[in-house]
Design brief:
alpha/beta, 4-stranded mixed β-sheet
Length: 549
């Protein structure tokens, strides 16, 4: 090959050949139609909800086809890397059920197509870069930053149809090999560029798995493949890695759509079969009547860690994301209330090409639906785990009374056909259950509009609570008290002749409820009193009565 001497000068170290690498990473033995997908984050330590969304779609695509989902760490840009960033990302993903079949996991790598960290694949990239150079499809470029800046100014002045390194502005494209060897030997910094085959005004067409057929201008830029330190650019590493790891579908954010012409050109130049692409829309937020992308600078909910701190169950977040992924999911969920969302017949072609609107109200509703059927003991355990990390005071209070929170949360939950949907996240358990704990209870006395302070004082002064009463006997006492004090024994009776009564038995029980809990709206009052115990119920009623005197 004519570039043998140049390749030897630029790549003096021993490298594997493309043929050896193809043998090292053979085609996967998977069922017909199985898809191989990947999530490839940078180790910045910050996991955006949009990234979780993308990873989830990749995992779903692999799962429903019996394929493989792997995780690759793209750490070639060391300026953006955060210490411990990989571990933080993996922990966040795992907390939301995103666990790869291959690749990076907590503390280890699994799979036969690694390394799954780009910084450990340097020789692989250089092997293919050298091959492109040998075949005349790449060349070294010695242009400095100042020269590149001058080039851009020239293009601005001349009104070039495309800005960048191409055509007559690609000054090193035809540099003689002996001159390139001499300049490299003299220590001049160089990058390796693709010798683009793109033609002005020519267009390419491809089918996006989400957006359908797309036409775009062909890539004309002589893009950088290797930077001055020998590290590949994202674009080149993407082509090499996704080929050797046998990725069948690249599912990523729509911001990468503009890169497809270059990526397809790279696959072609390297002699690789290109994967299929699916570009999914960004998550949007409604603001002042307009939609905009969720921003990690403006929106706390853009960080996945926010959902964890708030106490949203990870499964609830995924259920909500399923609603954004497919407009058919909610109908399917109603027909399959007990099924795992993994059973939903997901397909990329049914995803919307327009931006999905992140709706916090909808998230709350979905999360309530996930929490409501949890048995009290399970919800108490989950809330306790959350409190130990995010609410130390509550955790200490719960630790002092093991099993108590489970009793509280079992009310109107365990065995109920339609459990209450009062809790949307673990962070609400403190407020929900605060009146059960003397340390958190605020002795307020909200009264129904129809009850005066004097009437409330009479009710509390005469009410006699006994923990020995079953539910019927307990309510019988309240009903008898209501009748003695001039209240109707039933709401229906009061409705028929309101002038004959002060109110009805519900008003009387509301006063007792307010005295015991400080609230007018709670779960079953008899059950609450049983959990609180007779001594505390009597003490709270006496305290409330004293405030009315």
């Amino acid at each position: 090959m004519p570039n043998t001497a140049l390749a030897a000068a630029l790549f003096p170290n021993s490298l594997p050949t493309p043929e050896e690498l193809e043998a090292r990473y053979p085609a996967r033995n998977l069922p017909e139609g199985a898809r191989v997908t990947r999530f490839a984050p940078s180790p910045t330590g910050f996991l955006h909800i949009g990234s979780l969304y993308t990873a989830f779609v990749n995992q779903l695509t692999a799962r429903v086809t019996g394929g493989v989902f792997f995780l690759r760490v793209e750490d070639t840009d060391k300026k953006r890397e955060v210490e411990g960033g990989v571990g933080s990302l993996l922990k966040s993903l795992a907390a939301f059920g995103i666990v790869p079949d291959e690749g990076q996991a907590m503390g280890a790598e699994t799979g036969a197509y690694g390394p799954y960290t780009q910084s450990r694949r340097r020789d692989i990239y250089q092997a293919f870069a050298k091959d492109l150079l040998l075949r005349g499809l790449a060349y070294p470029c010695f242009c400095t930053e100042d020269e590149l800046s001058d080039l851009r100014e020239e293009q601005e002045h001349e009104g070039a149809v495309q800005k960048g390194y191409w055509g007559k502005w690609a000054r090193c494209r035809d540099l003689p090999a002996d001159e390139a060897i001499r300049r490299a030997a003299n220590g001049e910094a160089w990058v390796l560029r693709l010798r683009s085959s793109g033609v002005a005004d020519k267009r390419i067409a491809f089918t996006d798995e989400v957006r359908g057929k797309i036409e775009m201008p062909e890539n004309m830029l002589d893009a950088v493949l290797l930077k001055t330190d020998g590290v590949p650019t994202y674009h080149f590493a993407h082509a090499v890695d996704d080929h050797l790891m046998r990725t069948t579908h690249v599912i990523r954010s729509e911001e990468w759509l503009a890169s497809v012409p270059l990526h397809l050109q790279l696959f072609s130049a390297c002699g690789f079969k290109a994967p299929k692409y699916a570009h999914i829309s960004a998550l949007m937020k409604q603001e002042d009547g307009n939609k905009r992308k969720l921003s990690k600078r403006k929106d706390p909910e853009a960080a996945v860690s926010w959902f964890t701190r708030q106490g949203y169950p990870s499964y609830a977040v995924l259920e909500y994301l399923m609603c954004l992924i497919s407009s058919q999911f909610e109908d399917w969920r109603r027909a399959n209330p007990a099924a795992l969302h993994e059973a939903f017949p997901f397909t990329l072609k049914k995803m919307s090409a327009s931006g999905a609107l992140f709706d916090p109200v909808k998230l709350i509703d979905v999360s309530k639906g996930v929490i409501a059927p949890m048995p009290g003991a399970e919800l108490a355990a989950r809330a306790g785990d959350w409190a130990r990390e995010f609410d130390r005071q509550l955790a200490d209070i719960l630790a002092a009374r093991p099993g108590y929170l489970a009793q509280i949360l079992a009310i109107d939950r365990d065995g109920a056909k339609k459990p209450r949907k009062d809790i949307s996240r673990y962070g609400e358990v403190r407020e929900y259950a605060s009146y059960f704990f003397d340390e958190l209870f605020t002795p307020e006395l909200p009264l129904p509009d129809s009850v005066t302070n004097a009437d409330a004082a009479a009710i509390l002064g005469e009410y006699d609570y006994s923990a020995e009463d079953g539910k019927d006997a307990w309510f019988g006492r309240i009903r008898d008290l209501a009748v003695r004090l001039g209240y109707a024994a039933a709401p229906r009776e009061y409705k028929e002749t309101p002038a004959a009564f002060k109110g009805h038995v519900g008003d009387v029980s509301a006063v007792i409820r307010a005295a015991v809990t400080g609230r007018l709206n709670t779960p079953d009052l008899w059950s609450i009193c049983r959990v609180l115990g007779e001594e505390r119920v009597r003490a709270r009623i006496a305290l409330a009565a004293a405030r009315l005197v």
